[in-house]
What does this fold into?
Amino acid sequence: MFKFLDPYLRVVVFHIGKVDIKIENILNILTIYLGTIFVLYLIRYYLSYRAKKSLFDKKRNHSIYLFIKYFLWVFSIILMVRSTGLDVTYFLAGSAALFVGIGLGVQDIFKDIVSGIFLLTEGTIRIDDILEIDGNVGKVTDIKLRTSDFLTRNGSTIVVPNHKFITEKVINWSHNLTPTRFEVKVGVSYDNDEKKVKEILLRVAQQHPEVITSKKDKSPFVRITDFGDNGIMYSLFFWSSHMFMIEDTISDLRFDIREEFRNNEISIPFPQRVLHTYKANNPVDESSSTKES
It folds into this structure.
């Protein structure tokens, strides 16, 4: 149809070894490049449309999109090279020794890349998951092929190599998109009524907006965890879906517990020790109570 353009399309622009790069080769490369971008746009649009159903779909679809993106670009690059007339097989074979040398020098990078592929395919860690890594709690904001971005509670972003998610212990607080249980510990004097203490702790938890109270199997509850030297140890257990800043919720509960204890004359004991002293040649047992701060 456009045979009159053949003479122009066959004009040689430059040479790569014995291969002539013509205008039609450059147009083929541009067509493949733009076509890849367009296909990725359609895939992302479709996955975004599906992601409106639920947060789980949003996280899973992001991993699917990244995996398709990397695979499609590798395939497109191979097509671009082949469109120039270069034999990809000979190119790879001739570069095998170079690739081996590079692989030995950057094996940690390849380990991260392989780990990134596992993360994208398995979906064990997704965008917006709340994780605990090396004692740091944060949110996954992006998963790339080699590294992932990890936003901590203080607002700083940590770039984490992907192999840490595979080879090290990582606690995923939001893996199943279900609320997580947390605990607030408090010691109370032996002189106080246990039922009253339990009632106050439950009331404080039920009044906090971030604590789940509507689900019967996830209602707050109280346990006596130990009989200590200075008082009875209580634990208030509660569930919450706001895991990223859960320390704020725990702090609010402690403030409210302290206020309720003060209003109801519930005392939180301090450590006490009894010191016995003796006078020389006339031992006398003198007992005194000392406070330890």
Observations:
- The chain has three domains: 8-94, 123-172, 180-263.
- Confidence is low (pLDDT under 50) at residues 286-293.
